[in-house]
Amino acid sequence: MAAGLGLWSSSASGASLYATPGATVHAAPCPESNPCRLDTAISAAVSGDSVIVAPGDYYATGTTPYGPLPPVLAGRRLVGMSKSDPPVIHSKLTANATAALDVVGTGKAEDLILKVADQAGNFYATGVIVSGGGSVNRVLVDVDTVGDTASACASLGGIFTNTVCSVRGTGPNSTAFSSPVSGSDTTTNVVNVTAISKSPNSLGIRVGTGTPNSNLMFLSNSIARGQTSDLRVTTNVSTPGGTATIDVDHSNWATQDMTGAGTEQIVDSGGNQTGMTAAEPLFRDAAQVDFREVAGSPTIDAGIELSIAGDFALGGQPRIGGTLTDMGAYEYYQPPTVTTADGSGLTQTSLNLKGTVAPNGSQAETWFEYGKTTAYGQRVDGPLISAAAPATPVSVPVTGLTPDTLYHYRLVAETPLGGLVAGADKKFKTLPVPQPSVQLTKLKIKKSWSLRKGTKVRFNLSRVARVILRFERKTKTGKFKLKGEKIVAGKVGANKVKIRKKLRGGKLKPGRYRLTASAVTVDSTSSGPKRVRFRIRR
After folding, report:
1. Do 394 and 501 belong together in one domain?
2. Are residues 111 and 38 part of one domain?
3. Which single residue of 259, 321, 334, 469 has CA 20 to 30 Å from 412?
4. Are residues 416 and 463 in the same domain?
């Protein structure tokens, strides 16, 4: 496992308090052997303590989200146990001007995912807010709003690094990252942040002051997008004297505006990708809040190395994956190349699933997903492929399949640096179980009968089948000549067929005959011919 992608380790002098999903303990000391509820652990921490949050989904009770969590106060640290598998904290804000998480003073929040919702009619819901010099590092904040004026991230003076601030939903007037200051001079450092708002009439990053004070944001290695403007700087239109500034370098945005009666500034300090012709960043799946870069994004290797960003990007990848650091919260690493191939050795219940994986510089875990639909639902593990390996064939047998059934499958690979990639879907149908051959037995007809009365042919079948009865008349030379046929649908067991003068293809006349009977099933298995002889009288 690459450095930085493992579990949290403490270097602090204070205590470690542990929280796990579904924990019910309501009192400290919250050791790893007896962890507490998340809100309990945060409240119980004192200066110097770290609250260690295990991976998983966190709710207040059952699937009921938390409201605002207790604040992370000065000297405390709230940290996910794993950089690569951060805990997911669910919050719903039902009161105006509240935040899911408040980081105060020198408090710190790291390696978390916050999923936040508000409710219709509410104002100023915020995912995480920092004040007094607190810091947020490697946190994904996803706010799904139906209220008004929501923010994913907000700063009243602090540090944000390697963080995604995302707002989506139908609520208008939102801001991905907001720094609204009133009453004091404030400085915010924003480094390697992806600030994206998809809700109506929204902003990417806004820095403003409502009083005659200074609000300064240093913005580096970041990406900003809003529906109305990507960067906005504002001062109070009725109280002149305030100064609001964004000093920006090595960042990507397209649009900007400034309003107010004070001094509004956007200072371009170099290395930026900006303006209406700025190349759009390319993400894996922005609609699903997956802002990891993909190959070809102009933000790759476009940043500048800054010690404040630390050694690891959001998700735990080393901060520099190429020649330079990237813009935004994540660092691009080439994902594995995955190809699903045709299988081999198909039987009624098994197949060897095949494909190839090129790990592209990071050890790859491989597996096949398979099932009766493209939802798959089942998995069989493949080999680990070393980081330096070339494109490597992967072959894994699956057994216990249902005969004569359509299946879908695909090869999947995941690397610590490049992430998870699924190959294309392929499908196959298992072979049917061979049916036993049909047996026609006990063929009987009267040895002598008259055309006027007719007769019956009797026989037994082991399977449902189509039975062909061929009537051949003996000629003067001793050979038999076909005079007609009768084809019937036979059932399992005893059968009887009435025979009269007319047949398909001819008529019967008095004379000596040979009857040949054979059976054919729907899957084309057939019985051998059975023959009996008889005589027709006048």
Report:
1. no
2. yes
3. 321
4. no
Q: Report the mean per-residue pLDDT for the chain.
A: 93
CATH number at residue 469: 2.60.40.2550
User: What CATH number does the domain containing 184 carry?
Assistant: 2.160.20
- Averaged pLDDT, 451-468: 95
Torsion of CA 261, 265, 266, 268, to 10 degrees: 160
Of the candidates 277, 303, 320, which is a domain's last residue? 277
Give the DSSP letter of residue 326: P
Angle at 368 between CA 363 and CA 373, to 5 degrees: 145
| Confidence grade of residue 399 (pLDDT, cut at 50, 70, 90) | very high
87 and 165 together in one domain: yes
Per DSSP, what are the bridge partners of residue 365?
414
Q: Is residue 473 part of a domain?
A: yes
Find all residues with CB under 8 Å of 94, minimum gap 6, and list them: 67, 118, 119, 122
Q: How far is CA 25 from CA 20, 38, 101, in A?
A: 10, 9, 21
How far apart are the two ends of the chain, measured CA to CA in Å?
Answer: 96
Determine contact, residues 271/250, Cβ cutoff 8 Å: yes
Phi, psi (rounded to 5 degrees) for 451: -65, -30
In a domain, 321, yes or no: no
Range of the domain at 58: 16-277
The C-alpha atoms of residue 534 and residue 524 are separated, in whole angstroms, by: 30
Chain segment 133-191, per-residue pLDDT in tens: 999 999 999 999 999 999 999 999 999 999 999 999 999 999 999 999 878 899 999 99
Q: Indicate the number of domains in the chain.
A: 3
Residues 350 and 461 in one domain: no
Per-residue confidence (pLDDT) for residue 322, from 0 to 100: 87
Note whether residue 319 is domain-resident: no
Q: Is the pLDDT of residue 11 over 50?
A: no
Instruction: Give 9-15's long-range contacts (Cβ < 8 A, gap of 24+).
Output: 10/50, 10/52, 12/48, 12/49, 12/50, 12/77, 13/48, 14/46, 14/47, 14/48, 14/49, 14/50, 14/75, 15/45, 15/46, 15/48, 15/49, 15/50
- Give CA 367 to chain center in angstroms: 15
pLDDT digits (tens, 9 = 90+) for 310-351: 999 999 989 998 899 999 999 999 999 999 999 999 999 999
Residues 239 and 120 in one domain: yes
Q: Is residue 296 part of a domain?
A: no
Residue 105 to residues 46, 98, 99, 136, Cα–Cα distance (Å): 13, 18, 16, 12
Query: Which of 224, 252, 277 is the last residue in one of the domains?
Result: 277
Q: Which of 84, 7, 78 is nearest to 318 (CA)?
A: 84
pTM for the model: 0.74
Task: Report the alpha-carbon distance of residue 463 to residue 195 in Å, rounded.
Answer: 70
The two three-digit tokens of residue 203, written as one number = 């902003």
Residue partners of 61: CB distance under 8 A and separation at least 6: none
Are residue 415 and residue 447 in the same domain, yes or no?
A: no
